[in-house]
Specification:
Layout: H1 5-8, H2 25-28, E1 33-35, H3 36-43, H4 50-54, E2 66-68, H5 69-78, H6 80-84, H7 88-98, E3 101-106, H8 130-133, H9 137-140, H10 145-148, H11 150-166, H12 172-183, E4 188-192, E5 213-215, E6 218-225, E7 237-238, E8 270-274, H13 285-300, E9 307-312, H14 320-332, E10 335-339, E11 355-359, H15 363-376
Parallel strand pairs: 3-4, 3-9, 4-5, 9-10, 10-11
Antiparallel strand pairs: 1-2, 6-7, 6-8
Helix pairs in contact: 7-15, 12-15
Length: about 400
């Protein structure tokens, strides 16, 4: 109760208008003068707060009262009580609209809406044979298998390569984030622990493309030598299309069949350029170049720039992404939006000028809700880029 017409619509379970494909600010935002009927139509009868609306009406006796949209929004923003109770989706929408720059921090949960499993939690599921082998994900994700049993190692990594790079594609949440970055004065940078290479794909449209991405754990899109004594061990090369015809058959999912990828220098078995567990042989040259560009971009932001850090699907077990998001929020005095279905808690940033927003939702659902709030509530100052609403999930893995 008392949340207001703009706020109430965004609570889970509250009726709301569904945005259509390719919605734009010009057709969906509230008009300059908003009537009761338009408020009810935009946000649903169940979310409409008569006390808030009619408190702004100049002439209560008017049979068709209207209020200025700007006054409606200003009343919400200016009210200490309302701001304190501001729903996180609306709070995030306001931060998105005001941002000069974005940092996108993504973990395994970002891939769930592309049909990919996470390593832990409710969406866990990476490789079916693990249970039969009596191994967990951590044990299988070590580089030692490329020496002791390379066909077992490549059965596992072939499955992950096919699932992540060939049979899935970036869902529309990626393109939505990129569309926000295109409007921002200083653009954006992506910091991700995911190894699927999705942020670098041209269809995502991230300003700067691959030069604006830091894959902190490497990516399946590149290979390296598994032999640390190789003269060119630090070299990295693109993973061949379909891994050169390497196959894994249903009758024996734990053994790869065909020619294994090899190092062009020493002919040892090649491995993905991915940082694994107990991995002292990860070739970090590519990651270090990405890190330099990331640091240079952060350092280039002017003092006072309004930075919005949006973290999606980053877990607690290996909290690399969460820690980086919190560090950047403190350093840049930014707004941190943490989207996580299982644990969105922010345990205090220790920086009075930083803002914390916790959203307990899945990635795509939360991002779509933020965009709907941004446009429906009239916050948007520029036309929203049309976003394809067709399904992005491929289950052919």
């Amino acid at each position: 109760e008392g949340q207001g017409v703009i706020l109430g619509v965004l609570y889970p379970g509250a009726p709301s208008r569904t945005m259509g494909a390719g919605a734009s600010t010009s057709s969906q935002a509230l008009p300059e003068f908003v009537s009761e009927a338009q408020c009810r139509q935009a946000f649903g009868d169940g979310a409409f707060d008569p006390q808030l609306f009619f408190g702004l009406v100049a002439d209560p006796s008017d049979p068709d009262p209207v209020v200025r949209r700007d006054e409606l929004l200003a009343a919400i923003k200016a009210s200490t009580e309302m701001v304190g109770e501001l729903h996180p989706i609306m709070h995030a929408a306001m931060a998105v609209e005001q941002a000069d720059a974005f940092l996108f921090m993504t973990g395994a949960g970002m891939g769930v809406d592309s049909g990919l499993g996470t390593f832990r939690g409710r969406n866990a599921g990476v490789w079916p044979p693990l249970k039969d082998l009596g191994m967990d994900f951590t044990e299988m994700s070590t580089p030692s298998h490329f020496q002791s049993d390379p066909r077992l190692a490549w059965a596992f990594w072939h499955y992950r390569h096919q699932a992540y790079t060939r049979h899935s594609r970036p869902h529309k949440g990626y393109r939505l984030l990129a569309s926000w970055a295109k409007r921002a004065k200083y653009g954006a940078f992506s910091f991700t622990s995911n190894i699927d290479g999705h942020w670098e794909r041209p269809e995502v449209g991230l300003p700067g493309g691959a030069d604006s991405v830091l894959e902190v754990h490497g990516a399946l899109t590149n290979l390296q030598c598994s032999d640390q004594s190789c003269l060119t061990h630090s070299s990295i090369w693109p993973t061949p299309e379909n891994l050169g015809g390497l196959q894994v058959y249903p009758g024996n999912l734990a053994k790869a069949v065909g020619e294994l990828p090899i190092c062009p220098t020493c002919a040892s078995t090649a491995r993905p350029n991915v940082l694994m567990f107990n991995d002292g042989g990860f070739a970090s040259k590519r990651k270090e170049a990405q890190r330099r560009r990331y640091d240079e971009w952060v350092d280039s932001l002017p003092t006072g720039a309004k930075v919005c850090v949006i973290e999606v699907g980053a877990g607690l077990a290996i909290p690399t992404v969460r820690h980086e998001a919190e560090k950047m929020a403190r350093q840049l005095k930014a707004t941190l939006v943490r989207i996580n279905l299982d644990d969105c808690t922010i345990d205090g940033l220790g920086e009075p000028s930083a803002t914390e927003i916790e959203i307990p939702m899945g990635g795509l659902k939360a991002l779509e809700a933020i965009e709907q709030a941004r446009v429906s509530a009239g916050l948007a100052q520029t036309q929203t880029t049309a976003i394809d609403t067709s399904t992005d999930v491929s289950t052919d893995v």
